[in-house]
Specification:
Blueprint: H1 3-26, H2 29-36, E1 38-44, E2 46-47, E3 51-53, E4 59-60, H3 62-78, E5 84-90, H4 95-100, E6 106-108, E7 121-123, E8 128-130, E9 132-137, E10 154-158, H5 162-170, E11 175-179, H6 184-193, E12 199-203, H7 204-213, E13 222-225, E14 233-235, E15 238-240, H8 244-254, H9 257-267, H10 271-289
Parallel strand pairs: 1-5, 1-6, 10-11, 10-12
Antiparallel strand pairs: 2-3, 3-4, 7-15, 8-14, 9-12, 9-13
Helix pairs in contact: 3-9
Length: 290
């Protein structure tokens, strides 16, 4: 091949390879939705009441209803009659990658707002407050004192979670029993019922939701201890970190009156417990900001 022709082809390839990502990156998420008519989101199937499979194996939860509100607001913003929602199954292990790699525009679930340096993600404004507590059988309450070191107490935890890190640090003398995978919390609470563990530690709202789904008599036979959580966490939606327009739009939908009504509908059954936790955590956050 002629050397000049070869050099021309190499330069052409380099120019094209440089231009393609720049052009793709210049399109905002709202522009892409406008062009494709698709709203791509991720929802968990193992996090009651945010996203889960009900007894008929149908997808249900707060996030599914929130995505409906989000779609309606997107239609209004883009002046579109039809926007299709494409759902992706997110998990504890792939939720950041799905957003960071541009596969989805948003992931809805119990995601603690924090710094995640390994991925190109950020979080929306907070839409829920919760904290770490223990679910226990009320008959075992005298043996489980969260103010002690819980030595030799068998505590179930979901592996690779902030709950596990907290319990390991706060109760090094306890026996931690790890539960893995998307069915980990379900199996952990079953182990509690079968007295294979003395307590199961997780976020309060997730413990309440799973206990109710499994038919436990929550508040009577099974309770949360301590009365106030061991820590406080704010939940946010996972979104890309390079689209400020999308972040502002999502935040506006989170604060939307219809979204608030959706959250209240799902949490209404256990509203007193949730309100007590939220009030405590609000006071803690305010103290830390002073």
């Amino acid at each position: 091949m002629n050397s000049k022709l070869f050099q021309f082809l190499v330069n052409l390839i380099l120019i094209l390879s440089w231009q393609i990502p720049v052009n793709a990156q210049s399109e905002t998420i709202l522009e892409e939705i406008d062009r494709t008519g698709l709203l791509k989101v991720g929802i968990r199937e193992d996090a009651v009441p945010f996203g889960y499979r009900d007894l008929n194996n149908n997808l249900a939860g707060v996030c599914l209803d929130f995505i409906y509100v989000l779609r309606e607001r997107v239609k209004e913003r883009l002046n579109k009659e039809v926007i299709l929602v494409k759902l992706y199954k997110s998990t504890l292990f792939n939720r950041f990658e799905l957003v960071s790699d541009g596969i989805i525009y948003l992931e809805c679930g119990p995601n603690t707002i924090r710094q995640v340096s390994d991925y190109k993600i950020t979080f929306s404004t907070s839409f829920f407050l919760t904290g770490t507590q223990f679910l226990i059988n009320k008959n075992n309450q005298k043996n489980i004192n969260p103010n002690s070191n819980l030595a030799n107490i068998n505590i179930g935890v979901l592996a690779n979670t902030s709950n596990q890190q907290l319990i390991e640090a706060k109760y090094p003398s306890a026996n931690l029993v790890e539960f893995q995978g998307i069915t980990g919390r379900f199996r952990g609470i079953q182990a509690l019922q079968g007295e294979k563990v003395d307590a199961f530690a997780s976020d309060s709202i997730l413990l309440i939701g799973e206990a109710i789904l499994q038919g436990l008599n929550f508040g009577r036979d099974y309770i949360l201890v301590p009365k106030v959580p061991l820590d406080c966490e704010e939940y946010g939606l996972i979104i890309p970190d390079d689209d400020l327009q999308w972040k502002k739009f999502v935040n506006s939908v989170v604060k939307d009156a219809q979204s608030r009504k959706t959250f209240k509908k799902w949490f209404g059954e256990v509203l007193p417990e949730i309100e007590a936790i939220e009030n405590f955590c609000h006071s803690q956050i305010n103290q830390n900001q002073e």
